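User: Before I run my own analysis I want an independent prediction to cross-check against. Here's the chain; please return only the structure tokens and, at the end, one sentence I can use as a sanity check.
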Amino acid sequence: MLEIRPNCEHCNKTLPNDSDEAMICSYECTFCISCVDNVLHNVCPNCGGGFEKRPTRPVNCLTGNCIEKHPVGTRIVYKPIDENAFKEILKEFNNIEPRKR
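Assistant: Structure tokens:
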């Protein structure tokens, strides 16, 4: 089950459960769409993978699986990228499709 982290790891922007701006990689590193597009260029600085839109935890408990039963995470992960170190990662992965990295 996804943790649904509450913020962008790079700029610390708040990304609530229902945010349309939250993006995650396969390890659930969480960034806002602005950082993904303008800083990271769809390359995760932690694993080199690409990003997808983060799903929203349902608020309707009709199925029994919802935010009430499984609350979203509250752990803040804030570690702005080291731009010099990231340049090497970006150079390696930028021109490779995320599913082929």
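Sanity check: The helical segments are 33-40, 83-93.
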